[in-house]
User: Fold these one by one.
Assistant:
Number 1:
Amino acid sequence: ADNLASTGVKLQDGTYNVDLKIVQASGVVTSLVSGTSTTPHTFDLSTANSFTYTLATNPTVFHLANVTQGQKFIIRIEQDSGGGNDITWFSTIKWAGGSAPTETTTGGKADVFGFIAIETGLYDGFVIGQNI
């Protein structure tokens, strides 16, 4: 009880009256926004940081809107049941390893990519998982 003296008020009966503040620490949760079968397709980063998209056209061209410098976002790309669809990524991605990854083209399989907006129009891109 003596360690509470600095944060509480000692009462006449020797106990302390303490204001407790409970802080819950957790990650930032945003909606998972999904889309399918439009090309070009624009991911609006003012609505979410996590996206899932099913490829149903070949090729599918991706663009970004409303990006904030320093923003981190994830895009999960799944092939439709027929597979074989290609992606044309938004420009100015600096991919880990120096070149854009080859996406999985097997029907029903998915790849997950992560990005950091370094500055307006410039992104670091990372493969989080493939052939999922």
Number 2:
Amino acid sequence: MWLWSAAGFREVIKMDLFIFAVELIGTFAFAASGAMRAVSKRMDAFGVVMLGVITAVGGGVMRDVILGIHPPAAFEKPLYAALAAASSALFFFPFVRRRLYGDSSRFERVLFWMDSLGLGAFTVTGISAALAAGGESGFLLISLGVMTGTGGGVLRDLLAGSTPYIFTKEIYACASIAGGIIYLSLYSLLGEKLSGAAAIGAVVMIRYLAVKFRWNLPTFFEG
């Protein structure tokens, strides 16, 4: 298996360490948000871990299918699924449960930061993967970045019986789009690491400002 094979470890060493680190951060953040949502919906242990894993790898699977990468990286490289499962399992520890679920406002804050960090991280890794696969169109690159960043969250909310964030919450997909534009705009000037860090920071900041100042896109109400 990739995670435990010598070839797998050699591939990790060859990978750009910045992108690899961002992928790990995004995987942990989205797995945490998925697990938290599952616990709030009173799912059992299997449901909590599965929702965490699906949230963490779902967007990347969608991206790889569009790019024609078969099987998707999430199945070829179980490191990410393993990290997501381990991250989700953390929410069974009594200390974590007491700290998060005894205070609803703290729960919402942690969920928000995990979700925003995962959104920014996976927007960047989605574009990076599309570039590595030979993508050149700016529209394609940003679309795949947004899909990678939002796809897992959409699956999480649908499986948890909630309306996906992308359709209702403050500024969500728009933050991912802005991050993608920043990443591509700065890529040739600042390089992968600085442009990626700037894009992730921009996504998180836009999400924070949207919540703080209650920014929302227009909605239509009948009557």
Number 3:
Amino acid sequence: QQKLTVCIAICLTMTACSRSPAPTQTSLTIAAASNLTSVMSEIAQAFEKETNLRVVISYGSTAQLAQQIEHGGPFDVYAAADTEHVDALIDKGKLQPSSRAIYARGQLVLWIPDASSHVQRIQDLTKPTIRFIAIAQPDLAPYGRAAVEALSAVGIWEQVQPKVAYANSISMAKQYASSGNASVAFTSQPLVLKERGTVLKVDPGLSQPLDQA
């Protein structure tokens, strides 16, 4: 998490310095992927002290934010959870190509709030005690796509698919598990570092790398 914080802070500083703000500009508007909610507020506070610019953050799934930008969303910075959406927006002339940078590689985790679920590995999700599995929509969120890839790689996707409860983002997937509407949730590590229960890191080799641009 510390590395992620430093990398994003550097990227924001580079972005702010890469152009000259309008004399009347008093704020910086950021479109940030949901997996950044635990670190972006800390970064924003430091950035505000450094620049005297107020930071306004809009969180959402990477795809939803990309769609807003494509339709003219008034953002200064786009911090995605993948590279594909950034590259697509560059191709469409919606982002400055020179501002593209990889700022982090994400870690997919399986969060089990209730220890009585006895989940010690991904394969345990096939147990009857696991009623619902929260996953972000794969077509909206890179972490959701990675979760499906991991479940397929260990050979249990067909078994657990009927249990899947899809969410619009990984933060919403976390809320499903936190509220008890799902037994477990696939989400990003920073979102559940301070949460109760068990956090299992998913082997990065089971899915495409979660490079974030």
Number 4:
Amino acid sequence: MLDSGMIELLIDSIWETLFMVIVSSILAYVIGLPIGVVLNITNKNGICPNKPINAVLGVLVNIFRSVPFLILLIWIQPITRMIVGTTVGPVSVVVPLVVSAAPFVGRMVESSLSEVDSGVIEAAQSMGSNSWQIVYKVLIPEAKPSLLIGAAISVTTILGYSSMAGIVGGGGLGAVATNYGLYRYEDLIMLITVVIIVVIVQIFQELGMMFAKKLDNRLK
């Protein structure tokens, strides 16, 4: 039950979960942001229309988004072992989390960039800006509020994925919920882990909305 040992385990599990979520989110955006930019600028209404590139990249993104995380987690274990040297523990979960989340992030970024007013883009083009100048001086700055909201959604999605990893020894709050709440029928532990996860989700969502409001008066 909830003794000092269990409290210590819960605290360690919170840190493990935060490690998995934060590191995976950063790496997912390192990969997913460029994917989203390319998807946006190469579509038929983009600044660099390119149907073959857009179609191929779109198919790859859709394929990886369609694979359930738990299946992907098991499927790429050989790759995970090759990269980090193990398939157990929080570090090993980062690899499948990034592989699963990066395509999702790409679509979120694509959607955010598509909300930018076409008039602003046309004005930049008329002043002689090239494609990459439009991307980092117009598209991304103008889409910052939407990108931050999308980031909050992405982080909470990654948090949900990380909880599933506990089933296969990934560590974190998911492992505590599985090993104690599920297998040992300790309902109190299950409830506590659920409450903690909900609180973490709310914190990330509120932070995302707070920063978005600071950048966009329309959200106030």
